[in-house]
Q: What sequence folds into this?
């Protein structure tokens, strides 16, 4: 969007979301700011869904243990998983956020916050309607074979890519 010298910022949303990878369901919400309270609202939104038995969520390692771990006692079915620092590709909702950034937020030409929130929710509904559960093809056996190959290569003084 072209910005003139009289440009006025219209504010910003924090879009937080959760992804049920087993059923390809998205849960998202726009919040005015980030923090524990918006995270609690998202967790409540997910956990009160009919038929939902539990939630595993990844939190950045920099947030641990801090206030995020305080959520655990209040919600016994919540499991916080601390993802490795440079492994956002493991977190499927991060891939969803990447798609949102490329498909929805660029270019940023929204007339107001309401339009932005509406487009985010519409894309979330579209994503949920078209998504399919992720089927991981890398088995435990594949992992064991890879670990054995790496161990053998290390003992022989070679590097394995």
A:
């Amino acid at each position: 969007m072209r910005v003139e010298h009289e440009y006025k910022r219209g504010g910003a949303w924090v879009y937080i979301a959760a992804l049920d990878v087993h059923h390809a369901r998205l849960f998202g919400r726009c919040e005015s700011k980030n923090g524990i309270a918006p995270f609690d609202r998202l967790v409540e939104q997910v956990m009160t869904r009919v038929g939902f038995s539990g939630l595993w969520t990844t939190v950045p390692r920099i947030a641990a243990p801090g206030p995020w771990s305080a959520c655990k006692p209040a919600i016994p079915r919540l499991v916080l998983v601390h993802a490795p620092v440079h492994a956002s590709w493991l977190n499927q909702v991060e891939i969803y956020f990447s798609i949102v950034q490329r498909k929805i937020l660029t270019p940023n030409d929204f007339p107001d916050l309401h339009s932005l929130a509406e487009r985010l929710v519409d894309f979330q509904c579209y994503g949920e309607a078209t998504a399919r559960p992720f089927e991981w093809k890398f088995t435990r056996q594949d992992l064991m074979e890879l670990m054995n190959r790496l161990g053998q290569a290390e003992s022989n003084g070679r590097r394995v890519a």
Q: What stands out?
A: Residues 61-65 have pLDDT under 50 and may be disordered. The first strand starts at residue 14 and ends at 20.
